[in-house]
Amino acid sequence: MFISGKWSSPLVSEPESSFILSDYEILIYYNRFDSAVAIIKQYEGWHTARHYPYVGYGHKLQKGDNFDHTISKPFADSLLRQDLLQKCAAFRRFGKDSLLLGVLAYNIGEYRLLGTPTIKKSTLIAKLEAGNRDIQADYISYRKYKGKVIAALERRRRHEFNALYEHP
Hints:
By secondary structure, the chain is mostly helical. Helices cover 49% and strands 7% of the residues. The chain has 7 helices and 6 strands, in the order E-E-H-E-E-H-H-H-H-H-E-E-H. The chain has helices at 23-44, 73-90, 98-108, 110-114, 123-129, 136-140, 151-164; strands spanning 2-3, 6-7, 54-55, 59-60, 144-145, 148-149. The protein has a two-stranded antiparallel ribbon. A two-stranded antiparallel ribbon has the order 3-4. A hairpin with a 3-residue loop joins strand 3 and strand 4 (59-60). The longest helix is centred in the N-terminal third of the chain and has 22 residues, at 23-44.
């Protein structure tokens, strides 16, 4: 909750530092997150039984999920937001780029960006780790399926980047 210029929550104690967001900064953050959710919904579309194991707006069913493709749109929206927050948390160390990376990971998976013991870390992540934020071409390069450029994926990547990249 934002009260009189200070972030306040009954569940979270005030941070040790004097980290206070302005009304404008909070509005921008929530507008960007809501924009990210809208973009994902637009490109993922609604997943039906033929998209198993994906439901709603692209939530991948996990062990323990007690629902299927018959979920409601409000429930699917809450799943999308929860999944996106989880993806963004994986990229928290990249600060203002965490939302953009989270949106990309929602579609391709964190492992394709961060790497695994058998998969090399992406050049996109390597650039950001080196402090280089000239990442547009690297971001849009995630527009291929089975080695072929897909026009719809390229449109999606450009839309995501243009809407969510925070210029310095």
